[in-house]
Amino acid sequence: MASVDGKYQVARSTGRCEETGEILKPGSPCIAALCDEPEEGGFCRLDYSPEAWEGGARPDGLFSFWRTTVPEPNAKKRLLVDDEVLLDLLDRLADADEPRKLAFRFVITLVLLRKRLLKFDRREEVAEGIRWHLSRRGPAGDGESNWTVLDPSLEDDDIVDLHEQLGEVLQGDL
């Protein structure tokens, strides 16, 4: 796959509730929603106040969501989602066939491998390319490969770019 050249962009938070337009204050809770962008083959992120979300506000193309806290402007960046959210995203992207979603899923896999939540079992050459077989580490793992992920043959720069974007989406940078 060629260079990213902006084709894998996932918008970061605007700092406003998508439903009400109110500014989400640092330290306050919010709901981050990851939504399909069918025409782009990727995702966008939208944030909601808990009140708007509990009132039934839902975006079109809702793919996944999680509760998070709006970070302080000068706070050290940290991941504001738990490991289960990442595993859920990996599962939800299992049937993806758009290049942007395949790339996003692959980078989530790399993050989970780095966090030592998954282990690499084997690789397999298939018509589409190289498929990785992975299983969960620790007591939750049963020793069998639970996930297969297609390696989209990203360049190093693409992986770095997607990793940074994933971090921005999941950290809630405003």
Give the key terms.
disordered N terminus, alpha+beta, three-stranded antiparallel beta sheet, 174 residues, elongated
Draw up the topology in text:
Blueprint: E1 29-37, E2 42-48, H1 50-54, E3 62-69, H2 83-92, H3 99-114, E4 118-126, E5 129-136, E6 147-151, H4 156-171
Antiparallel strand pairs: 1-2, 1-3, 4-5, 5-6
Helix pairs in contact: 2-3, 3-4
Structure explained in plain terms:
This protein has 174 residues and is α+β, with helices and mostly antiparallel strands. It has one domain. It contains 4 helices and 6 strands; from the N terminus they run E-E-H-E-H-H-E-E-E-H. It has a 3-stranded antiparallel beta sheet with strand order 2-1-3. A hairpin with a 2-residue loop joins strand 4 and strand 5. Helix 2 packs antiparallel against helix 3. The N terminus is likely disordered.
Oligomer kind: single chain
- Shape summary: elongated
Average residue pLDDT: 80
Major β-sheet strand ordering: 2-1-3
In angstroms, what separates the terminal alpha carbons?
Answer: 31 Å
Helical element count? 4
Beta content comes to 25-35%
Low-confidence stretches: 1-6
Structural class: alpha+beta
The SSE string, one letter per element, is: EEHEHHEEEH
Rg, rounded, reads: 17 Å
Query: What portion of residues is helical?
Result: 25-40%
Number of domains: 1
Largest sheet: 3 strands, antiparallel
Number of DSSP-assigned strands: 6
